[in-house]
């Protein structure tokens, strides 16, 4: 966690001060964006010191590819991820690799994302999308994109994973769990930076006391999810069913109650804000690029036909190739999980000449890697979904696109998120014309993830353009 890189000198922002380090100009509400702006000026590998804690940033596609080599590197743990362990414990996202519950939960839960499970989640996604469109359809004036998308993704994870309706669309408000989660995560992030500060221990103790009721609320909610299931039953094959019933095929081990609670919290947190943000960024770019929006809508007409309320079948979802490219491109421009850390398994020397030892970590700065001109060309700052055409993707630098992380610790929910997001976008664009707020300027809100702040859109019912029957492709 100290991350001292054996005292090697790394480029850092100008004006470093004794004790406090590089805090000058650091706006805590946009700390990550400040890191990105600084690191962009400082070369492939740079550092930033906040009190005694050193952060090291990798910014190029080349260095990212090197750090993604699974033979030499593994998932690293930043102070922010370590602070998250107060929440997720040894749940999948926050578990250290040596903790026995990581391989156990991983092996038990991977099948819950296979095709047969996804076919069941498809029905859930259709239902929550109906609820979102009804909710937005009944709204006068512009709708708040992030709020609606968060309701949608929250309901789909709770219903798909735990067969549990959180009633998000029954009230105007955001579900209290989301507030508790955001507050707890924010405290966790502050805790991460404070840990190395003078009097940091005291400040952390105060934060933890202030935060205790949020944590207690979340834990009560999760315990209620489990006890309700035990009383009333539910889908035996959803994530919760698997965790309660299944044993590891080789070792015969099962997750205990604490482990199950940690996994549920992990899925609630990891499973919704990320997808909500990805949907919101995609909509933002579609609103900015009318010609892209028109093409995406033409694709929905081609696949879904003349009925604006038509719903895609499971098999149709992967056919929205253009929409999928829009989503991929939005996640390139603004990956909602904007970085992940890597640490060496044994001492290594990087191509930059720096020595890296176990315990040292570097954070891969995805917004910079995803816009590295070496991998993406000189127009890397432009939104252009067609970069993801197969013929243009072929030959691109390996590991230059990593919105879902890498290797064995990469995102377990990737297919879940992509299927859900494409389905929702297809339904929305098919049924509605979208009018942007002409004055909107993209501002990025930092929670645990990145989200477009205060994005709104006006929806107008749309008449799909009838497409003549074609011979099947
Ligand atoms: Mn997800 C890990 C991004 C949706 C559950 N996720 C990761 C990592 C990234 C990531 C990056 C790796 C982090 C690291 O190396 O430290 N996840 C995303 C994005 C989306 C997303 C950009 C949506 C878009 N994730 C989801 C959904 C779920 C989910 C949906 C659940 C249904 N993610 C996880 C879990 C892990 C993870 C669980 C940890 C996996 C592991 O370490 O075994």
Automatic annotation (TrEMBL):
Keywords: Heme, Iron, Metal-binding, Monooxygenase, Oxidoreductase
Top-level EC class: oxidoreductase
GO terms, molecular function: oxidoreductase activity, acting on paired donors, with incorporation or reduction of molecular oxygen, reduced flavin or flavoprotein as one donor, and incorporation of one atom of oxygen
Superkingdom per UniProt: Bacteria
PROSITE patterns reported for this sequence: CYTOCHROME_P450
Keyword Acyltransferase in annotation: no
Enzyme Commission number(s) from the entry: 1.14.14.1
Matches recorded under Pfam families: p450
Alphabetized InterPro entries for the sequence: Cyt_P450, Cyt_P450_CS, Cyt_P450_E_grp-I, Cyt_P450_sf, Cytochrome_P450_Monoox
Family: Belongs to the cytochrome P450 family.
Protein name (record): Unspecific monooxygenase
């Amino acid at each position: 966690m100290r991350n001292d890189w054996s005292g090697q000198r790394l480029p850092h922002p100008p004006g470093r001060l004794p004790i406090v380090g590089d805090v000058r100009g650091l706006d805590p509400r946009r700390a990550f964006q400040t890191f990105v702006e600084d690191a962009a000026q400082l070369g492939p590998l740079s550092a930033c010191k906040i009190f005694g804690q050193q952060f090291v940033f990798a910014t190029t596609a080349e260095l990212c590819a090197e750090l993604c080599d699974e033979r030499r590197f593994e998932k690293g743990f930043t102070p922010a991820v370590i602070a998250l362990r107060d929440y997720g414990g040894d749940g999948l996202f926050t578990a250290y690799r040596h903790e026995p519950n990581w391989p156990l939960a991983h092996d038990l839960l991977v099948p819950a994302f296979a095709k047969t499970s996804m076919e069941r989640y498809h029905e859930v996604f259709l239902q929550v999308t109906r609820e979102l469109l009804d909710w937005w359809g009944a709204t006068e004036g512009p709708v708040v994109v992030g709020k609606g998308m968060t309701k949608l993704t929250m309901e789909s994870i709770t219903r798909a994973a735990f067969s549990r309706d959180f009633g998000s669309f029954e009230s105007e408000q955001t579900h209290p769990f989301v507030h508790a989660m955001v507050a707890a995560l924010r405290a966790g992030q502050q805790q991460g930076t404070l840990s190395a500060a003078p009097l940091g221990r005291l400040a952390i103790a105060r934060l933890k006391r202030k935060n205790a009721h949020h944590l207690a609320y979340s834990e009560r909610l999760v315990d209620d999810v489990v006890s309700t299931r035990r009383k009333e039953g539910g889908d035996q094959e959803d994530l919760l069913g698997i965790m309660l019933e299944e044993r590891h095929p080789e070792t015969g081990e099962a997750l205990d109650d604490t482990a199950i609670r940690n996994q549920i919290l992990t899925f609630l947190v990891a499973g919704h804000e990320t997808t909500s943000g990805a949907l919101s960024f995609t909509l933002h770019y579609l609103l900015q690029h009318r010609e892209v929006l028109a093409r995406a809508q033409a694709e929905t007409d081609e696949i879904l036909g003349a009925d604006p309320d038509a719903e895609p079948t499971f098999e149709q979802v992967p056919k929205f190739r253009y929409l999928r490219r829009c989503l991929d491109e939005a996640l390139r421009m603004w990956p909602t999980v904007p970085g992940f850390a890597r640490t060496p398994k044994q001492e290594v020397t990087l191509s930059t000449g720096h020595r890296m030892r176990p315990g040292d970590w570097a954070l891969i700065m995805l917004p910079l890697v995803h816009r590295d001109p070496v991998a993406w060309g000189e127009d890397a700052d432009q939104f252009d979904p067609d970069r993801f055409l197969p013929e243009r993707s072929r030959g691109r630098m390996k590991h230059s696109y990593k919105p879902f992380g890498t290797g064995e610790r990469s995102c377990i929910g990737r297919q879940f998120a992509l299927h859900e997001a494409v389905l929702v976008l297809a339904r929305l664009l098919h049924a509605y014309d979208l009018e942007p707020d002409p004055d909107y300027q993209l501002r990025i809100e930092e929670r645990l993830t990145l989200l477009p702040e205060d994005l709104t859109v006006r929806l107008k019912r749309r008449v799909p353009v009838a497409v003549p029957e074609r011979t099947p492709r």
